[in-house]
Amino acid sequence: MPVGGAEEKLPGAEILNCFVALSGGDSANVVVIPTASRLKSTGRRYRKLFRELGAGEVHVLPFETREDCTRQDWLEELERADGVFLTGGNQLRLSTTLGGTPVAAALRRLNEAGTTVAGTSAGAAFMSEHMIAFGEEGPSPRADMVTLAPGLGLLKKVILDQHFRQRDRLGRLLAALAYNPFGVGVGLDEDTAAVIDRDNLLTVVGSGAITIVDPADMSFSSMDSAKADAPVCLIGLKVHVLVAGATFNLFTRVAEPPTGL
Amino acid sequence: MPVGGAEEKLPGAEILNCFVALSGGDSANVVVIPTASRLKSTGRRYRKLFRELGAGEVHVLPFETREDCTRQDWLEELERADGVFLTGGNQLRLSTTLGGTPVAAALRRLNEAGTTVAGTSAGAAFMSEHMIAFGEEGPSPRADMVTLAPGLGLLKKVILDQHFRQRDRLGRLLAALAYNPFGVGVGLDEDTAAVIDRDNLLTVVGSGAITIVDPADMSFSSMDSAKADAPVCLIGLKVHVLVAGATFNLFTRVAEPPTGL
After folding, report:
1. Is the pTM value of this prediction over 0.80?
2. Residue numbers in A near B66 (CB within 8 A)
């Protein structure tokens, strides 16, 4: 469940509520991983929020160093989680700290076994196999405007971007997709989440939109020959802008409007 | 079988010979994919070489556009291959042309089923899940010196670099690894190949060296906080420089010298 950042935090907040419900509600054991953030208060703040929203138990596991990621007591706590929440901050702090450690392996295993894993902003970016580490703003793709890095690997054929319309990130998402048009681009607006189930069905939750870019039928790309700072020519991209209740099947690549509309 | 580029092409050339032998020698049906190259002569040149080296049959499949990658006659030819050779050129031409097409899917399926897949230079870079698209030279890692892109995905936890010592690429390989230290860096010198078998055992072939960088025990990295063009601090990397006959197990991460030394 990747979240586009800046999710509503008042009582009754839809996205955080949805995460608690998916994790089991009042019987949920929620673990918060604030590694992306440099603020000591981030973990405590989410603990308070999730308790107010009725989660059964909330634990903060503040992995700060790679050595922290081998602490047996924290790993055992993590294994008991019904839901894991990765906070925002810097996704490179997540990948450099957790990458290749028992924490990353546990998150993949838990998610595979049914534990809900959510992440907001940097926490969302980190969830896919190919993660946008950093990049530039702007609507048109340029060859050198985005830097990819290996992420956690919960989502294999998806490239995520967050704060999507708020920070004008269509260009960098298109550039990332153009490197290898094998996957689907998912641009998450703020206060908007993608709930992805076992069958690869993505459902939109929250107040903004999710922009889906599907390059499956792209017939031409100049990415391999474009100069570093020149715009890239891409022909045949399919785009969907989805709001709350709309769905997209990441496997069949079919979008459906919200039921009832 | 990734090759570091500029492999010997005289009669008896060790690396190309090894590829033909692994593909079945005089009964081998070899397919050459020259997509990375912009020279029309590249495919023909390798066809001549592989014939001289005794391959049973050699076919060139010059996929130039994404539409070419759906041609049934070429896909059927590809399905019959015992060995596939990806030439050098530009790895972004490979990923933008073949990525997400039936050709990429066929290469993964064939390799899984036992077909030898080799690539030289750009062809080698393209073979891993996380591919170095381009970058800068120099021995020290800097945060912005390398651009990764999704590759073909035959090798999951490996980042490859080629023309390794000839083009002073240690810095960019270290930068790529530092984004997420989950994998192993494999720096291939020119005229040097890594033969990787089903059990993830890598054996060095050729006249140069392969530099292995294993970040599994890295205790500190400043990648998440380093300024774009500043050097990155990395503590606890393990490095092996391996020559012909030496091995490295990509799963257990154990290096062994050539037998007899």
Report:
1. yes
2. 181, 218-221
